[in-house]
Amino acid sequence: MKQDKSDKKFYLVREDVLPEAMKKTLEAKEMIERGKAESVWDAVHQVDLSRSAFYKYRDTVFPFHTVIKERLITLFFHLEDRSGTLSHLLTVVASSGCNVLTIHQTIPLQGRANVTLSLNTSGMEIEIDELMSKLKKLEFVDKVEVLGSGA
């Protein structure tokens, strides 16, 4: 039986067995959060990590204390490039009680753009399944996937 992409498994892993790039990503994220780096470029430069490795892991690796405190979820969207789509999408997310932690949007190509949202769902007033259903029904959303979640 084929596993649905949204049914990902999560693991608690000791730091000493993590790949170096994941450790450095965690270090860079902490530097940015604590104000010890002014930008992603500055943080990855300080920890000797490529920006591509940082972006590969930033929404998939979290310190244990963060996952315990907050319910995090990362959603990936493939959207039509129309005026107001991101604003409308964020309104739906906010109305569910989610707090947007990060937004990453690509430059639209061929009338489509990719958006990744990292959300704190601890204040959600509806179930995640209901939110996903609402988001999938938006006429400008071609695709929505859960990339990762915790707690």
**Could you name the CATH homologous superfamily of the largest domain?**
ACT domain
The domain count comes to 2
Count all strands and give the number: 4
User: Structural class from helices and strands?
Assistant: alpha+beta
Q: Beta-strand level of the residues, as a percent range?
A: 15-25%
Seen as an oligomer or otherwise, the chain set is single chain
Element-level helix/strand string: HHHHEHEEHE
User: What is the overall number of helices?
Assistant: 6
CATH architecture of the largest domain: 2-Layer Sandwich
Largest sheet: 4 strands, antiparallel
Evaluate the radius of gyration.
16 Å
Highlighted features:
151 residues; alpha+beta; Alpha-Beta Plaits; 2 domains; 37% helix; globular
Would you mind describing this structure in some detail?
The protein is of the alpha+beta class. It has 2 domains: 15-58, no CATH class; 68-149, ACT domain (Alpha-Beta Plaits). Helix content is 37%, strand content 23%. The chain has 6 helices and 4 strands; from the N terminus they run ααααβαββαβ. A 4-stranded antiparallel sheet has the order 2-3-1-4, with helices on one face. Helix 1 crosses helix 2 (40-47) and helix 1 packs across helix 3. The longest helix is centred in the N-terminal third of the chain and has 14 residues, at 20-33. The relative contact order is 0.18.
